[in-house]
């Protein structure tokens, strides 16, 4: 009987253009001149883990990079057979699954290596692993002053294949001097560990790194944000297009008199008769509350309309007085082709990565270009 009931369209939704995703991957390939590990952690930066991973894997990338075993499991269960790389450290209770499923972990300590070797020995297999080296991120990896005797110790683990070596750039979009020094440090570490030829895969460069810095010795890049259409270095935005457009609908339009408060706390009070449209999206959907009072705008019918009052959990209000005819049901762009996501992030006092990954499951993902 329920099958006969009407189903409402989503109140808030994200259009995900998979053709644009593939186009951005091509930009990353051309910029890096190397094999690619596509980074799809955090639900492919909020774009949808399984659909995005399947599209990118079909483009013959070398690795799919995820944050944890839960993401790896979901990708594999979705039918992706591209090699899966775990970008962060694993803890002891996760490692048996990593070995059993032949995922590729990065190692930050000899203790991890010894545990993986014991598990691989018990499973009767040889596990391919990468070394993580700390060149300045401070989050994981072998430190530069802890490299003496490292390769000899690792080579004693008969069921591990030391296949790659990677590090991470924490400030490539902010501090060029530090980043250049970090890249030099990575090259020094390579030489101390026997030279580049000792490692099948050498990777350091994230989106900002591959767009703006020296790529010598690296034969694998790890684009993340740029795949989704945003360059962390604004001067390199050319060629990248947004994959996600965040949309909602006008649910109500009212005329408020001068002197009328709008939203919680009366942060905004009208100074003239004002046509106010209520939009069906809020911070419960991932539209940041920190946009309140900070000059945010939305796009309705070819017009930019200022957000007024505080962003609430489920709704926002915008001034449509000067926007022509706006009626219930009109489509509203929160960010996309007309409003860059980095503008939203800046006005919210955060970064594009957080805006993307903060879009909640309540927002339907609608795919095209597959």
How are the secondary structure elements laid out?
Layout: E1 12-17, H1 18-32, E2 35-39, H2 41-45, H3 49-57, E3 63-66, H4 69-77, E4 83-86, H5 95-101, E5 106-107, H6 110-123, E6 127-134, E7 142-143, H7 150-155, E8 160-166, H8 176-192, E9 201-203, H9 207-212, E10 220-221, E11 244-256, E12 261-262, E13 268-269, E14 274-279, E15 297-300, E16 303-308, E17 316-319, E18 331-335, H10 341-348, H11 352-357, E19 364-368
Parallel strand pairs: 1-19, 2-3, 2-10, 3-4, 5-6, 6-7, 6-8, 8-9
Antiparallel strand pairs: 1-11, 11-14, 11-18, 12-13, 14-17, 15-16, 16-17
Helix pairs in contact: 5-6
Short description:
The protein has 370 residues and is of the alpha/beta class. The protein has eleven helices and 19 strands. The chain has helices at 18-32, 41-45, 49-57, 69-77, 95-101, 110-123, 150-155, 176-192, 207-212, 341-348, 352-357, and strands at residues 12-17, 35-39, 63-66, 83-86, 106-107, 127-134, 142-143, 160-166, 201-203, 220-221, 244-256, 261-262, 268-269, 274-279, 297-300, 303-308, 316-319, 331-335, 364-368.
Verbal overview:
- This protein has 370 residues and is of the alpha/beta class.
- It folds into 2 domains: 18-230, TIM Barrel; 244-368, Lyase, Ornithine Decarboxylase, Chain A, domain 1 (Beta Barrel), CATH 2.40.37.10.
- Helix content is 28%, strand content 24%.
- The protein is built from 11 helices and 19 strands.
- The chain has helices at residues 18-32, 41-45, 49-57, 69-77, 95-101, 110-123, 150-155, 176-192, 207-212, 341-348, 352-357, and strands at residues 12-17, 35-39, 63-66, 83-86, 106-107, 127-134, 142-143, 160-166, 201-203, 220-221, 244-256, 261-262, 268-269, 274-279, 297-300, 303-308, 316-319, 331-335, 364-368.
- Helix 5 (95-101) crosses helix 6.
- The longest helix has 17 residues, at 176-192.
- The protein starts with 11 loop residues before the first strand and ends with a strand.
- The model has no long low-confidence stretch (mean pLDDT 96).
């Amino acid at each position: 009987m329920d099958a006969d009931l009407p189903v409402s369209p989503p109140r808030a939704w994200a259009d995900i253009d998979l053709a644009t995703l593939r186009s951005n991957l091509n930009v990353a390939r051309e910029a890096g001149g190397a094999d690619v590990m596509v980074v799809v952690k955090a639900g492919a930066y909020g774009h949808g883990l399984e659909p995005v991973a399947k599209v990118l894997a079909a483009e013959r990338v070398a690795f799919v990079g995820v944050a944890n075993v839960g993401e790896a499991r979901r990708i594999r269960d979705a039918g992706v057979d591209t090699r899966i790389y775990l970008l962060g450290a694993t803890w002891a209770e996760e490692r048996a699954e990593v070995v059993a499923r032949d995922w590729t972990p990065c190692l930050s300590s000899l203790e991890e290596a010894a545990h993986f070797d014991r598990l691989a020995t018990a499973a009767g297999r040889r596990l391919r692993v990468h070394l993580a080296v700390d060149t300045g991120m401070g989050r994981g990896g072998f430190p530069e002053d802890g490299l003496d005797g490292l390769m000899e110790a690792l080579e004693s683990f008969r069921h591990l294949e030391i296949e790659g070596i990677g590090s991470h750039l924490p400030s490539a979009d902010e501090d060029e001097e530090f980043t250049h020094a970090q890249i030099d440090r990575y090259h020094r570490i390579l030489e101390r560990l026997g030279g580049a030829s000792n490692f099948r895969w050498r990777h350091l460069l994230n989106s900002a790194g591959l767009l703006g810095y020296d790529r010598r010795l690296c034969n694998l890049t790890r684009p993340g944000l740029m795949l989704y259409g945003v360059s962390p270095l604004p001067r390199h935005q050319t060629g990248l297009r947004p994959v996600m457009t965040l949309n909602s609908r006008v649910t109500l339009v009212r005329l408020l008199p001068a002197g009328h408060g709008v939203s919680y706390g009366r942060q905004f009070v009208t100074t003239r008769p004002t046509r106010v449209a209520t939009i069906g999206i809020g911070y419960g959907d991932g539209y940041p509350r920190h946009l309140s009072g900070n000059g945010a705008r939305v796009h309705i019918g070819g017009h930019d309309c200022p957000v007024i009052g505080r962003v609430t959990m489920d709704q926002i209000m915008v001034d449509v007085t000067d926007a022509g005819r706006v009626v219930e049901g009109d489509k509203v762009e929160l960010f996309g082709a007309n409003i860059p996501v980095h503008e939203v992030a800046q006005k919210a006092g955060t970064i594009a990565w957080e805006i993307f990954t903060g879009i909640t499951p309540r927002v339907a993902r609608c795919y095209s270009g597959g």
